[in-house]
Fold this sequence. Notes:
The protein has a single domain (about 30-195), classed as 3-Layer(aba) Sandwich (Lysozyme-like), CATH 3.40.80.10. α3 (about 140-155) packs across α5. It is α/β, with parallel strands linked by helices. It has helices at about 5-10, 60-65, 140-155, 165-170, 180-190; strands spanning about 15, 20, 25, 30, 45-50, 90, 95-100, 105, 115, 120, 125-130, 160-165. The termini are far apart. The longest helix is centred in the last third of the chain and has 17 residues, at about 140-155. It is built from five helices and twelve strands.
Amino acid sequence: MTTSDDASTVATSPWEGGWHRSAKRLDSPNHGARPPAKNHIDLIVVHSISLPPGKYGTGAVQQLFTNTLDWDVHPYYQGIRGLQVSSHFFIDRAGVPWQFVDCDLRAWHAGQSFYRGRGQCNDDSIGIELEGLEGQGFESAQYQTLAQLCLDIAQRYPIEHIAGHEHIAPGRKQDPGSGFDWVCLKNSLDWPLRRFPEPHQP
């Protein structure tokens, strides 16, 4: 029997299974099951991406994550031809969230990585891509959406850490980069400092 309180909880939840209700859904084939031994999802990884680099609103990121990108449209794409990647979320410059992979599943966003004493961060993390270029700034609308999304994710999953791609793959990746305002995100979330990368980390 479903009580009125149960119905209210379902109605007000930002989630429908592992899909966020406010995000534009665009399913990516680039995902898999999380390993049974690593189903404790406790890390959010923040990335940045733009295609071509520094160009915004092209739709190419969405195409990349759904394996529909025309590799011949731009010379830069020749260097990533055939790449199959995805992220759970993508936040465009206007702050609009897109979702490509059910958060209960493993998206392909981290690659070779190591953080909080564990490797293969794809297995137990949720990836969020911001439309932007490493080293450059991001829009206030993106920070607002990112913060709300992080809070919603923490309602469903036991999040204990949030880090940039640069922190989980130092030397190999540099995003979201020096233009990302970690202080802004910390102030918006009001989470314990232990959840964030240490200031001296790359």
